[in-house]
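seq:
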Amino acid sequence: MSRRLLILLVALLLSACDMLGLGPDPRIAQKEADAKAVGAACRNGLRSIEDCYALNKGINKASIYAGWLEMDAYMRENKLEGQRAEIVAPAAAPALAEEIIDEPKAPSKGKAATH
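struct:
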């Protein structure tokens, strides 16, 4: 009887691990999903996998590759063409620009201001 009770108690305790937050960290799954999305976007943007790795340093390469492969298979299956992605350099900020402030005109005397 005590063995059955002990087995039942252990099973009950182990089943509650997810409720205590002892399961896998959801942030890890989110980072993997983000990396797969980056890989898929690179493939759709007609970037090579090497270029994708170079542009996205610090992201899991295996997940990028998995996303790239999934998108490649999807595009081949549906006979889709990619869209060339171009990186546009940000415009240089002006050195020193003067700020022009227009002050609102005061209503003339004798006329009531309408709102």
